[in-house]
Amino acid sequence: MSNIVLATLIETLSPHFALSKSRLSTLSCLIVGLVSGRTVNLSHLASLLPGEALHSSNYRRLQRFFQHVILDQDRIALLAVKMLNLGRAKTLALDRTNWQIGSTHVNILVLSIVTRRFRVPLLWSFMNHQGNSNTDQRVALVRRYLSLFDVSSIELVLADREFIGKDWLDFLSENNIPFAIRLKGKLLFQLESGCVTSLNTLVHGRRARKNTLVWSGRLQGAHFKVCIAARQLKDGEWLFIVTNAPCAKAALNAYKKRWAIECLFGDIKTRGFNMEDTRLSCHKKLSTLLCIVTLATIWSYRCATTLMDRKAIKRKSHGRREKSWFRLGLDTLRNWITHKPDRASKAWRKNCPKRSIN
């Protein structure tokens, strides 16, 4: 590991985390090792630590770090917004990811920022059960966001069909949080005329592959008026979203950004840092690990931005980009750590706040 890179991380992270110098050094080694090795497995990371210590000693050092250190999610979220220059109103995506460690199920509810270039986890909570989240868990996560950022910072909250329920939608409406959430076609909707019908019935016999259909009313049991926007997809299936945004058509168009959080889960798993390689099952330790993954993700995006500036990634003949911004940044960062550590350090240092963020 480059001494230049480690020294930069230790210096810039020290104002933000109340850790001893040795803990800061271990944190920095974990971030660099995570990027270089593309794995969160502590045994593999121990072999990447600098110095002449035995592998078993390095492994125990990493174990002690996760045993005694809990990184603050809130601080990570503030750093992400600052370092990626995301102070403007932003689109948030809510979803969950899960995997299994032996007989233990890991189920995480994640609130992330999604932009044209970036997809970064901001806040998350671990659920002690399998399956969908409930309203209380979603509300608690959004309240944590509102304790850090003003509601005006939310352009739109996107979520899939499992994130529905009258209490949940009422909470978003009460707090003036604009949302676009997909609905199942069998859901009942009360039109302004008072007629109650299913969404599938509303579009029965219609064709609207290019046009957007919009209705106003209430979901059954909800107190706030919303709009339903619908469009027929190429395979004939109907896409329904419920929204309180001023323009339902624009909200429907913006809903396609929700897929970015699925790509994010791929970034932190198989296409990036292989989060599922961990043997950690304790939620506090997993949360600290996810904080480290988020820091590595931020660094990757900083490198991609430094490399490309305002240029776009080239498209292939099939129309898709050669690489995602994340993969471009990660590949660049790995190269710079090995061959151009001064550039890797500069990319991290440029937007990293010199003082603690409140």
Mean pLDDT: 93
* SSE arrangement, N to C: HHHHHEEEHEHEEEHEEEHHHHH
User: What is the terminal separation in angstroms?
Assistant: 31 Å
**Regions with little confidence, pLDDT below 50 for 5+ residues:** none
- Annotation, overall tally of beta strands: 10
If strands are numbered along the chain, what order do they take across the biggest sheet? 3-2-1-4-5-10-9-8-6-7
Q: Name the shape in a single word.
A: elongated
Main sheet: strands, sense, barrel: 10 strands, mixed
Rg on CA atoms, Å: 22 Å
Helix content estimate: 40-55%
Secondary structure category? alpha+beta
Strand content: 15-25%
Tally the helices. 13
Describe the protein's topology.
Elements: H1 3-13, H2 21-37, H3 42-46, H4 55-68, H5 73-83, E1 90-101, E2 104-114, E3 119-126, H6 135-148, E4 154-159, H7 166-174, E5 179-183, E6 188-191, E7 196-198, H8 199-202, E8 213-219, E9 226-232, E10 238-243, H9 248-254, H10 259-268, H11 283-308, H12 325-339, H13 341-349
Helix pairs in contact: 1-2, 1-13, 2-11, 5-11, 11-12, 12-13
What's a quick, concise take on this entry?
By secondary structure, the protein is α+β, with helices and mostly antiparallel strands.
Could you explain how this protein is built, in words?
By secondary structure, the chain is of the alpha+beta class. The protein has a domain at 1-69. The protein contains 13 helices and ten strands. The chain has a ten-stranded mixed β-sheet with strand order 3-2-1-4-5-10-9-8-6-7, with helices on both faces. The mean pLDDT is 93.
